[in-house]
Amino acid sequence: MKNKVVCEEPHGNNSFPLSLHYADNKLYEDIIYCHLHSDIEILYVTEGTLNIQIDMNTFIIEKDEAALINSGEVHFGNSNDGNDCSVYAIVFNPALLSFNSFDICQSKYINPFIDGKYKLPNHIKRDTCYEREILNNIQKIINTIEDEAFGYELKVKAALYTIFQRLFLIMLLLKMQR
Questions:
Q1: How far apart are CA 29 and CA 56, in angstroms?
Q2: Angle subtended at Cα 82 by Cα 20 and Cα 140, rounded to the nearest 5 degrees
Q3: 10, 17 Cβ separation under 8 angstroms
Q4: What's the CATH number of domain 6-177, 1.10.443.10, 2.60.120.280, 2.60.40.2310, 2.60.40.1250?
Q5: With contact defined as beta carbons under 8 Å apart, do 12 and 93 qualify?
Q6: What is the mean pLDDT of each run of 10 residues along the chain (178 residues)?
């Protein structure tokens, strides 16, 4: 049976366009069905290993690693080895990071993502201190959303900004090494 690509609707709601999902292969053989959306998706593996295809590239995401899926990328995932695998998905509209008033952060960092000029790396491992900090912030987002304490939205946005800042730093460092 061939996979059908599903185009999903935006996640979250108008006031906070972000949602958290949990999936594992105990419920579904395909942990992540074949789909795409205009939102950004962060997948964080909490158990086992995830075999994920993003557009035409395949990655093995280990426990405590993450996959970052850009807006419009077709993606699909299942357990790499048939063993137990569980994943959290943080899905959000990139406009969540936008500011109401113009500033350098909006023009220099946020707009290029929204306009598709920058792409997120698809695999975050634990190899560098920057990657470990990104992964720690992903865990912080998951815990914060699950707790839903008063003001959790602020903490989530702060963690997202930290993640994006670190991603820019990594991209800058990689560019400088060439």
A1: 21
A2: 25
A3: yes
A4: 2.60.120.280
A5: yes
A6: 51 79 83 91 96 96 97 92 91 91 89 86 94 97 96 97 93 63
